[in-house]
Inverse folding.
């Protein structure tokens, strides 16, 4: 591994920061808020790669090695996002948008998705940022993922998906079922309670670690500047969790202003990036639709498929951000993989995409964002995903043997 990334990649990262700042200024001046998907996606990929924070590996490592650090990082991310969402909602900057409790799509989609991502070698965001780092298996999975989502959205699985969608449970007021609707406590109060519990758990873990026998002292390399250390060294999962949680606040506002009122997500961005290359005509969404849309005239052709430009730009920038991060950290490797692994990753990508298509989201939209919105639908999806991941990890990665 490279210890000292070349000056050229440090220059690239500085240039990227300047370009991101310029894009934000242009978006503010023109009202084209979809442009902010570029800096948000770039930073998202950068942060994910820094801590190697893939949902699939987080769940598998907890099961195989009892290593819960990445899951702890996801927990920090969710709570930080939750606090920000509560504040943004209180200020009237966003409208909270938890998913309806379509329990059948969540359960079936989570089980399919959780199984597929083990074969693919990562969840959808994992395939994106690992592709930026040169992982050929992730690239193969990334080819398969939009095919799987497309099977559900437009292909032979669409009828099955529509059948599952009819099973909906609503709250007493007819809206989505959330922890707030179940407990009667406001979203903000619950967010504060979760934050206090998380802080208490972090304090307990720190005390427990400090009480454990100390390991032999390591000889540290000469200290470099703070910014250099941030850019060129790997991060702990909780550090990336804080960074992504804060990024999610801005992602929510940016995405809502660009036509899709939801926090971070990548599933449909991957599908729509593929549609942009293969389907015409395609209706590009760049801003919220009018409250009273004009109905199509009788006999008019079927409406074109919709694609959110925000989501497309986000996933493209995510790969670029991960690539720059891997170059700075010295982890970029473009190495051949065994052919059987690459083939399995491709078909695992199709299964992963199909599961995400049925549920309507992946780890980013369903767990990072959905749990932060306290959606019961997302909780069902997340628990089904984790259970399927552990079963497939046991069968595929451990050969059916507990170690």
């Amino acid at each position: 591994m490279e210890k000292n990334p070349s000056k050229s990649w440090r220059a690239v990262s500085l240039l990227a920061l300047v370009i991101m700042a310029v894009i934000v200024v242009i978006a503010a001046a023109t009202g084209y808020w979809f442009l902010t998907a570029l800096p948000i996606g770039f930073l998202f990929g950068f942060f994910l790669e820094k801590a190697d924070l893939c949902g699939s590996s987080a769940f598998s490592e907890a099961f195989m090695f009892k290593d819960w650090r990445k899951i702890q990082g996801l927990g920090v991310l969710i709570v930080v996002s939750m606090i920000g969402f509560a504040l943004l909602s209180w200020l009237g900057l966003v409208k909270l948008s938890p998913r309806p409790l379509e329990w059948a799509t969540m359960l079936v989609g989570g089980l399919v998705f959780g199984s597929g991502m083990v074969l693919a070698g990562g969840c959808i965001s994992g395939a994106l940022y690992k592709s930026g780092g040169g992982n050929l298996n992730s690239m193969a999975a990334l080819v398969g993922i939009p095919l799987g989502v497309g099977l559900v959205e437009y292909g032979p699985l669409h009828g099955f998906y529509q059948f599952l969608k009819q099973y909906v449970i609503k709250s007493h007021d007819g809206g989505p079922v959330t922890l707030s609707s179940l407990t009667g406590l406001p979203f903000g109060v619950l967010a504060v309670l979760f934050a206090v519990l998380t802080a208490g758990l972090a304090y307990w873990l720190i005390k427990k670690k400090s009480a454990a026998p100390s390991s032999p002292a390591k000889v540290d390399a000469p200290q470099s500047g703070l910014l250099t250390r941030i850019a060129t060294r790997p991060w702990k999962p909780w550090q990336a969790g804080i960074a992504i949680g804060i990024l999610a606040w801005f992602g929510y506002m940016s995405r809502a202003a660009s036509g899709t009122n939801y926090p971070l997500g990548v599933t449909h961005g991957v599908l729509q990036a593929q549609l942009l290359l293969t389907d015409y005509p395609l209706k590009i969404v760049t801003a919220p639709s009018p409250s009273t849309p004009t109905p199509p005239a009788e006999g008019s052709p079927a409406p074109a498929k919709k694609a959110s430009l925000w989501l497309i730009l986000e996933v493209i920038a995510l790969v670029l951000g991960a690539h720059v991060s891997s170059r700075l950290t010295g982890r970029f490797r473009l190495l051949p993989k065994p052919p059987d692994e690459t083939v399995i990753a491709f078909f695992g990508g199709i299964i992963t995409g199909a599961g995400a298509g049925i549920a309507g989201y992946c780890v980013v939209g369903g767990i990072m964002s959905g749990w932060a919105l306290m959606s019961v639908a997302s909780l069902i999806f997340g628990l089904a995903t984790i259970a399927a991941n552990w079963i497939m990890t046991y069968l595929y990665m451990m050969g059916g043997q507990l170690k």
Remarks:
- Strands lie at 282-285, 305-308.
- Residues 52-204+260-290+301-308+332-397 form one domain.
